[in-house]
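Friendly challenge for the regulars: who can give me the C-alpha cells for this chain first? No prize, just bragging rights.
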Amino acid sequence: MTAPAAALLDELDERGIKLYISDGRLRAVAPKDAISGDLRQLIERHRAELMDLLGHGDGPAPSAFPLVTERLVLRPLRAGDEVDVLAYRGRAEVFGYLDDNPLTPATIGRYVAMMAQFASLDHPEDRLLLGAELDGHVIGDIALSRGRARHAQGEIGWVFHPDHSGHGYATEAARAALRLGFERVRLHRICARLDPRNAASVRLCERLGMRPEGLLRDERWLKGDWADVAVYACLDHEWRARG
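First reply, four minutes later:
Bragging rights claimed.
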C-alpha cells in the first residue's frame, strides 16, 4: 500500500469518483466529466497500486442471484412481495429494538419499491437487501452493505417473521450472506450492530461465530430513551478457519 495511491483514492472519493475492480480491470463510477485528462493520467500512473488497494474482488454479478440455501431462496425484493413483507414488517413486536416504525398498508408499496433497488454489491458503498423466500413466500430479509473499497468493511442485519422463529431460517440466511460477503465480495470484516437486549439476535451472532467487539453506551435515541448498541464481528480469516 503506497501513500500516494491511498491519498489519491481518498481524493477521488471526495469528488464522488468510485473506483472498483471488475473482470480484472480497474473501472470507475463518476459524475459526468469528473475525470479530466490529467486525472486520468494520474490514475493510470498509479494503476497497480490502486488495484492493490482495491484488491478485494468483484461484487456479485446480477446472475449470482438468487442465492439458494438448503431451505431458502434469497433474492432481491420485487413487486408482489408487499403482502409477505407487511406480514412481518407490519408487526410492532418486530420493531421493539429497531429505529424504524412498523410498515402499514399505505407505506408497504413504497418500501418494497425502494428496497428492490438494493440489489447488488458491485460497487463500494453499495447495499444489498435480499428477501428470504420459503415455499414461495418471503418470511424475512437480510441486509448486507459494504463501505469504501480500501477498507473492505461490511455490515449485516436481519429481520424475520416471528412466527417462523426457532427453525434456524435466520441463521441459514445470514450464513449465506456472510459467505457472499467474505468469499465473493472478499470483504475483510463484517459486523452486526444490535440492541444488546435483543437476545435472539445476540444468539444468532454467536451461532454465526461473530465475536462481541464492544458495547456503545447510549449510542442512539430509541423510542423515548437512550439505548446501547452491541457490536459483533467476524474477520475473513476467522470465517475461513471455520470452513
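The domain at 3-53 is CATH 1.10.10.1830 (Arc Repressor Mutant, subunit A). Residues 56-63 have pLDDT under 50 and may be disordered. Your move, everyone else.
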